[in-house]
């Protein structure tokens, strides 16, 4: 049955992986795109980046962090055999996959999952892919085996040092950019993480692409809720993105539009500011 959950497994605290039957989406999906789901008739629309898909089986894979009412309902109340009311997609512009040379894919927290298909597509195009992933602690790292399988190097950072280097992802990112000639960087994770990844790349004059997590309602460009400022112009994350050049994003405006920080986002802000000597 279309939109039926075929598999479900926990990936860490408040994070679940769902495999959903969606053959038409699976047949057309490309790296960097997303779907909008609605759990039931009275449910809100939730944008979720495509973490994986299998055209042969007609399934898509979603990694869901339970941070709000609807994502918690999806993660806790929906199980194998249950059907999601609506799954719309694939939406958004795909990643610009081509032969660059050496590239770096940075994933922070649950952002590791959506950066995986980008890394895979870049590897299939003949690029050398270096992966940099991070989280607060090793229990929050996910899909390391998948990321390792599509990259020539895997660098890990955790805030508490329980796996990889102790610190935030910009530390190993800076080390890679210092040691290697990198043609392009992709970064997906909390907005504050992407902001500092963009700043790090600017210091080395390396182009960086980020996937913006602006507030989104309809996902088709009609409501304007997901508007962001890129290069001094108003763009819409759902139809113009979700990927944009990180050096052109008005990060202060984006962060203000995201509203009140969750505990995770507040913690991320504190640690990235600390890593840069208190400079925001």
Describe the structure concisely for a colleague:
The chain is α/β, with parallel strands linked by helices. It has helices spanning 23-28, 69-77, 112-124, 144-149, 170-179, 191-203, 237-240, 251-257, 263-275; strands at 5-12, 15-21, 34-38, 46-49, 52-54, 59-65, 86-91, 102-108, 128-135, 153-158, 165-166, 184-188, 208-211, 227-230, 233-236, 243-245.
For the structure shown, list the relevant keywords:
280 residues, alpha/beta, Elongation Factor Tu (Ef-tu), domain 3, Rossmann fold, 2 domains, 7-stranded mixed β-sheet, 4-stranded antiparallel β-sheet, 9 helices, 16 strands, globular
User: Number of folding domains?
Assistant: 2
The CATH fourth-level homologous superfamily of the largest domain? Nucleotide-binding domain of ferredoxin-NADP reductase (FNR) module
Strand fraction band?
Answer: 25-35%
Radius of gyration: 18 Å
CATH architecture of the largest domain: 3-Layer(aba) Sandwich
- The CATH topology of the largest domain corresponds to Rossmann fold
Give the helix tally: 9
How would a crystallographer describe the biggest sheet?
7 strands, mixed
End-to-end separation in angstroms reads: 49 Å
What is the 3D form? globular
Would you list the SSEs in sequence order as H and E? Answer: EEHEEEEHEEHEHEEHEHEEEHEHH
Q: Could you name the CATH class of the largest domain?
A: Alpha Beta
Task: Please give the order of strands in the largest beta sheet.
Answer: 11-10-9-8-12-13-16
Number of strands: 16
- Uncertain runs with pLDDT below 50, 5 residues or more? none
Helix residue percentage: 25-40%
Structural class, from secondary structure content? alpha/beta
Residue-averaged pLDDT: 87
């Amino acid at each position: 049955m279309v939109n039926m959950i075929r598999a479900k497994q926990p990936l860490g605290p408040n994070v679940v992986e769902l495999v959903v039957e969606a053959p038409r989406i699976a047949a057309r999906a490309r790296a960097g795109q997303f779907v909008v789901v609605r759990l039931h008739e009275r449910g809100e629309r939730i944008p979720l980046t495509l973490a994986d898909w299998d055209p042969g089986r007609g399934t898509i894979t979603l990694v869901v962090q339970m941070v709000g009412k609807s994502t918690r309902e999806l993660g806790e109340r929906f199980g194998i055999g249950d059907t999601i009311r609506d799954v719309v997609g694939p939406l958004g512009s795909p990643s610009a996959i081509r032969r660059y040379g050496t590239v770096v894919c940075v994933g922070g927290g649950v952002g590791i999952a959506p950066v995986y298909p980008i890394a895979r597509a870049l590897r299939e195009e003949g690029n050398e892919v270096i992966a940099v992933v991070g989280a607060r602690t090793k229990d929050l790292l996910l899909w390391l085996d998948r990321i390792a399988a599509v990259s020539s190097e895997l660098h890990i950072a955790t805030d508490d040092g329980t796996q990889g280097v102790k610190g935030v992802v910009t530390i190993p990112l800076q080390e890679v950019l210092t040691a290697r000639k990198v043609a392009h960087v992709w970064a997906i994770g909390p907005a504050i993480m992407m902001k500092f990844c963009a700043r790090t790349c600017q210091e080395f004059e390396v182009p960086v692409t980020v996937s913006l997590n602006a507030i989104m309602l309809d996902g088709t460009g009609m409501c304007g809720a997901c508007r962001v400022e890129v290069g001094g112009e108003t763009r819409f994350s759902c139809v113009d993105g979700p990927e944009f050049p990180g050096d052109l994003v008005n990060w202060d405006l984006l962060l203000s539009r995201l509203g009140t920080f969750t505990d995770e986002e507040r913690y991320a802000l504190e640690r990235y500011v600390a890593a840069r000597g208190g400079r925001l």
